[in-house]
Amino acid sequence: MKNIMFIAPPAAGKGTQAEIIVKKYHLPHISTGDILREISKEDSEVGNYVRETLKSGGLVKDEITYQLIEDRLAKDDCKNGYIIDGFPRNLEQAKEYDKILAKLGYDIGTVILLDIDREILEKRITGRRLCEECNTIYNINDPASSPKQESVCDKCGGKLYQRDDDNLESFNNRYNMYIEKTEPIIDYYEKKGVLHKVNGASSIDEVAEEVDRVISND
Ligand code: AMP
Fold first, then answer.
1. Pseudo-torsion of CA 43, 45, 48, 50, nearest 10°?
2. Which of 68, 114, 186, 215 supports an S-S bond with 12, CB 3.0-4.6 Å?
3. How many angstroms separate the alpha carbon of residue 33 from the centre of ligand 1?
4. If you measure from the C-alpha of residue 60 to the centroid of ligand 1, how many angstroms do you get, rounded to a whole number?
5. Pocket of ligand 1 contains residue 93 by CB under 6 Å
6. Does residue 65 have its Cβ closer than 6 Å to ligand 1?
7. Tens-digit pLDDT profile for residues 3-55
8. pLDDT exceeds 90 at position 113
9. How far, in Å, CA of 210 to CA of 153, rounded?
C-alpha cells in the first residue's frame, strides 16, 4: 500500500477523509495537529509553548515538529503504509520530509489535495466539534455530520469539544498562512508527478469516493 498525504486548507475535511481511509485500509493516521494537541495537554514548558502556538494559529517550531514526525514514522506500524496529514506545511518542511523519507527508506506515495473555497471553510469552522477520546470529527452546522446527542460522541460516548483555534480570527490566520506557505508545496508535488486534486466542496461521501478512486488507481 502506498503512503497517502493530504494537503488542504484548514477545515477542508482532511481529518475526516483520513479517518475514512484509515478504516477501509487499516493504515495508521499520522496527524501532526492531533499529536501536537496531545502535547498541548501536558503541563510542561513544551506543553505550554505548543498550547499557546496552537491557539494563535501559528506554526509550531520545526525542531519539535521534525522530531515527532521522524519518531512516529519510524515505528513498525508505518512500514507498510500510512496516512499523513498536516505535514509538510511549507516548502522547507517538504524538503525535510524528503530527507526523513530517504532516511527511513520510504516513498512519498500519493499526494491528495482537497480543493475548496474560503467561504465554505468559514461556515464549517464554527461548527466543528471533536471527540476528546477518539478524535472523531463532527459538524453541528451540517445535519449530515452532526452527533446524535449534543456534545456526545456517537462512536464511543466521549465528550465533544471545540478546538481553541476554531474561531474566525484564528481561522483567518491559518488560512492566510496556508495560502502563503502551504500552497507552494502543491507545485512542488505536481512537479514530482504525485499530486491528485479532489473537489473538497462535495459531500463527505462524494469526496471519500473520489479519494478512494485516486488511491485505487494510483
Ligand atoms: P491541524 O490539525 O492540521 O489543523 O493543525 C493544528 C495546528 O497544529 C496548526 O495550526 C499548527 O499550530 C500546528 N501544526 C500542525 N501541523 C504542523 C506542522 N507541520 N508544522 C508546524 N505546526 C503544525
1. -120
2. 114
3. 5
4. 7
5. yes
6. yes
7. 999 999 999 999 889 999 999 999 999 999 999 999 999 999 999 999 999 98
8. yes
9. 27
